[in-house]
Amino acid sequence: MTRVLITGFAPFGGERVNPSWQAASLVAAEPPAGLAVTAAELPCVFGESLDALRDAIRADNPDLVLCLGQAGGRPGVTVERVGINVDDARIPDNAGGQPIDEPVVPDGPAAYFSTLPVKACVAAVREAGVPAAVSNTAGTFVCNHVAYGLGHLIATEFPHLRGGFAHVPWAPEQVPDGTAPALPPATVAHGLRALLAAAARTPAEQDLKVTEGATH
Fold first, then answer.
1. 3-state SS, one letter per residue, for 112-174
2. pLDDT value at position 100?
3. Active-site residue among 44, 121, 167, 190?
4. Is 167 a catalytic residue?
5. Which residue among the candidates 44, 67, 121, 143 is catalytic per the annotation?
6. Whether 190 is catalytic
7. Is 80 a catalytic residue?
8. What is the Cα–Cα distance from 147 to 49, expressed in whole angstroms?
9. Average predicted confidence (pLDDT) for the chain
10. Full-prediction pTM beyond 0.90?
11. Which of 4, 124, 131, 144 could form a disulfide with 37, with the two C-beta atoms 3.0–4.6 Å apart?
């Protein structure tokens, strides 16, 4: 039985919900076969989010970690390839913090690549009937802060872990006028179950050799 920790964020930016936490909760409530899944909600706050992630890892002792965040405007589940060592907040976090051009980890490496098989994960989500793509940027807000921070935790404190980050679209209730892409959290959760199953059975070094690159 593979132990999985899945995280989502609290609402931010004036929203009432965060689909990352909605989807994470649904996956934990009905996990894929062969996986024991625990969900943890992270605060949308620089620094505090990584403290909460570390605490959840210590409490649950997972084999695999998938952190989720909201990416409004994206049409599907996007599996992040890399987190970069910079915080550059366009808006304040939920505690009013707004770091500009500050490192996530002082003197840390420039970036950490996901230790999940990102292309196999994307293929699995698509096979489940949910739109998905590889993403080469997690932004520079708290999502990237956690994506990079997870990589640093794996490299320095939890070397037995594999983990990565994925973004999910807005929920329909966040775009009631239908002017932007949205997916029901239940649909997202269905795709994430396939993603986790693929991640659990596929080492990153055995990822699919298929084109998922971008020109910009």
1. EECCCCHHHHHHHHHHCCCCEEEECCCCCCHHHHHHHHHHHHHHHCCCCCEEEEEEECECHHH
2. 98
3. 167
4. yes
5. 143
6. no
7. yes
8. 11
9. 98
10. yes
11. 4
